[in-house]
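Technical annex, item 7. During the second reporting period the consortium partners agreed on a shared format for inverse folding records so that results from different sites could be compared directly. Each record opens with the tokenized structure and is followed by the designed sequence. A conforming record, contributed by the partner at site C, is shown below for reference.
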């Protein structure tokens, strides 16, 4: 935070710690191409792991759970999906793919948001539509207690 304050006003020099961080970033950026050429399998594995973790974790927040033994197949394969939870995890992956492949060209618009919702909800009746009524979000504790957190007005 202090660094941002320093940059927001005129200054004579860059703080030493900031210079070190910028040098580290420059060095890592220079090695990026090297890693891409030397370790494509490792990068592919890391990318796949990140996609799986993102799809599963983001859906878990919504209460969506899938069988751990089927996760990679759901995210990367073409199996028949067993239930709504698997469909939502697959849809989330499809939305991520769309963002990664066309992100720079996607307009920030209501239609883009609705399309992302369509992808993540799969064949559900509410895919790409706004909710018709508000929903309560309740934090649930291991002992069964629940605490009202927020009122959701969007999708």
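Designed sequence (site C submission):
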């Amino acid at each position: 935070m202090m660094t941002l304050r320093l940059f927001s006003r005129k200054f004579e020099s860059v703080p030493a710690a900031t210079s070190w961080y910028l040098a580290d970033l420059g060095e890592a950026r220079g090695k990026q191409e090297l890693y891409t050429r030397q370790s494509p399998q490792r990068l592919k594995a890391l990318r796949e792991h990140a996609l799986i973790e993102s799809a599963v974790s983001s859906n878990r927040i919504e209460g969506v759970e899938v069988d751990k033994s089927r996760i990679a197949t759901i995210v990367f394969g073409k199996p028949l999906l067993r239930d709504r939870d698997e469909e939502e995890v697959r849809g989330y992956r499809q939305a991520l793919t769309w963002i990664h492949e066309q992100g720079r060209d996607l307009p920030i618009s209501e239609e883009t948001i609705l399309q992302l919702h369509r992808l993540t909800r799969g064949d559900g009746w509410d895919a790409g539509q706004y909710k018709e009524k508000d929903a309560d979000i309740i934090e649930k504790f291991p002992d069964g207690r629940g605490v009202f957190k927020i009122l959701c007005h969007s999708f």
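Residues 20-122+134-152 form one domain. The radius of gyration is 21 Å. All partners now use this format for quarterly exchanges.
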